[in-house]
Amino acid sequence: MLVFGSCDDAETLREEVADVLAPLGLRFSESKTRVVHMSEGFDFLGFRLQWKRKRGTDKWYVYTFIADRPIRSLKDKIRALTHRLSQQPPRDVLRRLSRIMRGWSNYFRYAVAKSTMQTLAIFVWRRVARWWMRLHRWSWTDLRRHLTDHTGRWRMPSSDGVELFNLGRVPTERYRYRGNKIPNPWPLANHA
Q: Using CA atoms, how far apart are residues 126 and 123, in angstroms rounded to an integer?
């Protein structure tokens, strides 16, 4: 990944790396290897890295977002577990959902993802609520009676002591910018 240079520099570097990999029996995947400008962004290990202007300023930064594919994959897993005709015990489903979402959120919590996590938390809550309404043959009033506390606030679904993990409460963090403090193992060319 070259993040500083022109398109010609990137193509030259790509050819050099291909020459180094060839004796090892390795080669670039044509579908995964692209030369793009940072303002277009690219996907890498489930993250979307893109150069954007910070809101309210004229400064540009590289932001790390969650790519679309992992979000679709998570939603597909949630849909499979909360299918409306599923007869699985709610405790087992909540435990499985919580494990999936906890692992997923721990991996992606270093991205700019607070609003994405909130949206996914609402999505999961609604899927579980609809599934429970179908499973127990509840009306909306019955669901509200089971999922609100004495003050009328909604709470996370729980069954037999297992509560659904809330993705919206996951603290997101950004990697600290360390700039020149990161040691460089390669000598600089023409270093004075």
A: 5
Conformation bin of residue 14: beta by default, left when phi > 0, alpha when psi is -120 to 50: alpha
Any residues with CB less than 8 A from the CB of 107 and at least 6 apart, and which?
46
Helix (H, G, I), strand (E, B) or coil at 166: coil
**Which tens digits make up the pLDDT trace of 85-114?**
888 999 999 999 999 999 999 999 989 889
How far apart CA 180 and CA 192 sit, in angstroms, is 17
| Token pair 């403090």: residue | 181
Q: Which two tokens stand for residue 117?
A: 């996590």
Total-model pTM: 0.79
Phi-psi region of 81 (alpha: psi -120 to 50; beta: other; left: phi over 0): alpha
3-state secondary structure 41-66: CEEECCEEEEEEECCCCCCEEEEEEE
